[in-house]
Design goal:
OB fold (Dihydrolipoamide Acetyltransferase, E2P), ATP binding, transport, Rossmann fold, binds adenosine-5'-diphosphate, ABC_transpr_MalK/UgpC-like, alpha+beta, six-stranded antiparallel β-sheet, 380 residues, binds magnesium ion, 2 domains, Mo/tungstate-bd_C_term_dom
């Protein structure tokens, strides 16, 4: 039984004569104990999706369930969920203890003793016991966020819903809280739906990631599935940083290449078969910055590039390259010395290249995964 599910859910907002389709025909099952991240650009419908499950928006079509029970018509407090928001919305005049207890006092018939015990346990888990008698204005951002989490934990819900809960924190604290949230999740083991627009957060935190664009689910899978096997150009570009490079090229069937004069990429036999099935005349070639390699000489998959900007990151350097009308980003070993305005030759390794349909954006083929040998010691 999934902890919660969306079954063919749509949400349409009416704005005067305008209809805004915020969520379109969405189906997702949230498995027991899993940490599911909903990710996508601003305005793609993430918050609405979460609010539909929370009961803060009405559903236009479809069903939402919690523990296999349809909850479309249940009040938020009766849905067995707890939500954590971006702004912590703590009551300023109440202590931490009172803030954590308040929701339970208002919406349950638990005894004061039981409530006190739940607050105490949640405070221990979150390591904020010594803050229980403080008021919110005497807390740091990270501490406030922990209290907001505590308020959710004391409800002992079937599902946690979190809407960009870390976005008000500075970068360092955000990274730290990311780890803390994962530890918390491991400890409590309650299914969590976590919304973020940040693909790094999605990659690092999600057991599975659901990518949304314009109200529609694009793909759902593990972080590595999305990274290696994106179903379309949108997912390919959204997951991974810096973004995957896309080269819009003509498919020269006779030569077995994708080309435009500036760049020529020679397909393998396997890749040609997939292209034949797709029946395209143009093709968008995708290659991640970290997959581009420096080349020694000319080859069937090399291009000559002008370096426009070098961004040293330490471990690696990002090179911004001009290849004719194309701009590429390559990530190379930080020890390699390369200057602006230098000309270099790079290779697009055949095993690392993706191809996308020029109109639909759907993947025609993805990079190889099977044939690669993992170093011994890799835990699988
Ligand atoms: P996200 O959280 O991914 O940034 P939202 O779910 O907030 O996106 O919004 C999705 C779309 O629905 C946007 O186009 C937004 O403008 C629209 N929308 C959200 N809430 C309302 C509302 N109450 N009334 C009208 N349109 C809304
Ligand atoms: Mg939002």
């Amino acid at each position: 039984m999934p902890a919660a599910a969306y079954n063919d859910v749509s949400k349409v907002f009416e704005d005067g004569n305008d209809k805004i389709v915020a969520v379109e025909d969405l189906s997702i099952e949230i498995q027991d104990g899993e940490f599911l991240v909903l990710v996508g650009p601003s305005g793609c419908g993430k918050s609405t999706t979460l609010r539909l499950l929370a009961g803060l928006e009405t559903i236009t079509e479809g069903e939402v369930t919690v523990q296999d029970k349809i909850v479309n018509d249940e009040k938020p407090k009766d849905r067995d969920i707890a939500m954590v928001f971006q702004n912590y919305a703590l009551y300023p005049h109440k202590t931490v203890r009172e803030n954590m207890a308040f929701g339970l006092e208002m919406t349950t018939s638990l005894s004061n003793e039981e409530i006190g015990e739940r607050v105490h346990n949640a405070a221990e888990i979150l390591d904020i016991t010594e803050l229980l008698d403080r008021r919110p204005n005497a807390l740091s951002g990270g501490q406030k966020q922990r209290v907001a989490l505590g308020r959710a934990i004391v409800r002992k819900p079937s599902v946690f819903l979190m809407d960009e809960p870390l976005s008000n924190l500075d970068a360092k604290l955000r990274t730290q809280m990311r780890t803390e949230l994962q530890e918390l999740h491991n400890e409590i083991g309650v299914a969590t739906v976590y919304v973020t627009h940040d693909q790094t957060e999605a990659m690092t935190m999600g057991d599975r990631i659901a990518v949304l664009n314009a109200g529609e689910l694009q793909q759902i899978g593990t972080p590595l599935e999305l990274y290696h096997q994106p179903v379309n150009e949108f997912v390919a570009g959204f997951i991974g940083s810096p973004s995957m490079n896309i080269l819009e090229l003509k498919y020269d069937q006779a030569a077995g290449t994708a080309t435009d004069g500036d760049v020529t990429y020679k397909f393998t036999e396997d890749q040609l078969e997939k292209l034949a099935e797709a029946g395209v005349e143009h093709v968008n070639i995708g290659i991640r910055p970290e997959d581009i390699e420096l080349a020694d000489g000319e080859g069937p998959r090399t291009v000559t590039a002008d370096v426009s900007v070098v961004e040293p990151m330490g471990e690696e350097s990002y090179l911004h390259l001009n290849v004719g009308r194309h701009e590429l980003t390559a990530s190379i070993d930080g020890d390699y010395i390369v200057g602006n305005d230098q000309q270099i030759r790079v290779e697009l390794p055949e095993s690392r290249v993706h191809a996308f349909h020029p109109d639909s954006g759907e993947a025609i083929f993805n990079r190889n995964r099977d044939s690669e040998e993992l170093p011994t010691g890799a835990a699988l």
